[in-house]
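Comment thread on ticket #2218

A.B. wrote:
> Attaching the input chain for the structure job we discussed in standup.
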Amino acid sequence: MRKLIVGPIKDPITAEKVKPRPLRPPQRRPAEHDFDRGEPARIPSGDGPSVEQSSPTQSVHATGPEPSRSIKFDSYTPMVDPSLPGLFNKLHPPDPSGADSGNGVILYVGNPYLVASTDGGASFKDHDPTAFLPAANGRPVDQVMLYVPHRDLFCWMLQQNPSATSGEGHFRLAVAHSSDIAGDVEQDWSVYNFSSSDLGSPGVATDRQDLAYSESRLYMTTSLVGKGRVVMSLVLDDLDKRQPVRWSFTDPLDPRYQFSQLSQQNQQSGHIVAIEKTTSLEVMTFDDGGSYGFHSVTVGKFPNDADLKSLDPDGVDWLTLGVANVSAALVDEGSLWVAWDVAASAPGEAPVYPEAHVRIARISTDNWKVIEERQVWNPDYAFAYGTLALTNGEVGYGVGVGGKNDYPNSCFGILGDFVVYFRDKSTSTAGAPSDARWGDYITVRPSTVDPPRFAAFGYYTDGVGNAWNQRPFHLSYGRP
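C.D. wrote:
> Ran it. Output below, let me know if you need it in another format.
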């Protein structure tokens, strides 16, 4: 087993130290920094049988399944009239990430805003993080919001701009107890700043953040551009007490982990998964004691293409920059659910998947063999950006869905129903026609407010052509 590298203790900056500062208006640009993320790692072809494909999703519309297996939207609150509209539509994609808490505080983030509710989701207000967090380099993008229920702690990871001269990458972690921000979400945050130098790679940009927790650790990950993805382990006790934090980190991982997300709902250890070959995944497992190792897992052979594609009704590729990667992982009593994005079938491949789609496998963590495999697919739609959560014995999931008949949208459901749901229909692709970019991720988590339900965070678009608007939303759903 490899050991994590111990990093220097980080001191927090509290919100009380923030001085008011003038804010410059945002500029229109994609929510990516001006650096080349490089070509995705090539996926080697592997030998192996194709698994029997699951029944196709019947419809992306909320017209099924059977009544006994239906779901209910308990609340659905899109942000259609933000007070800071420039933050919602000047940068794309939004990449929404959020979580709820038992104190009625619900927070979600996009590029580059924060949206908050302090009344359990009855109402939401948007905020500019640069107005109340300590000064940083540029506006935050690629933000991730997570709630740790056994600490009543919101953890918020923010990607900042690289230094203009040195290229040094910067990201930060902000933490606050829900009980402390229930009256004012702009108060009482403690912020820990990190840079690529902290990870042994000075002058290297960082990208594509994610967060997860276990009983005693907060796990963070970022990609050192051109070097590899790094997983960081922080002591939850330190964050809970808002004191200097002890932390450690892995060596940069193989480039195939570049876009991989951390496993969620961990206990004593966590995981991050990458596509190894077209017939296997590689699982890196890290424990709270500071060790990590790797496991190869054989899966059914899947289609491979370096660039995922799907054309919207205008012929615009809404999956621009989409690559085959592991988009979600979820711990479930001795097993690990993994979702990954794959391409449409190539000519001559069987069975035939006409569009890009999402694969889901459940893997035993005892022997690292597949328990079951499924496909989220449909001959008329592409699916991507899968996300997973577990509550009340059921796996909830979300996907981006689009195709020749429908503009891309965020859809959510429960695994096994073969149908996903949305409320508002998209009428355009964000960034189209010149800079189409639907996104990298959406989010679903087990609800802390109502444990049998799921808390989901997605978005749809309205407007046409260059007049598109991104409408992020919070959704609570579950069985009736």
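A.B. wrote:
> Thanks. Noting for the ticket: The chain has one domain: 2-478.
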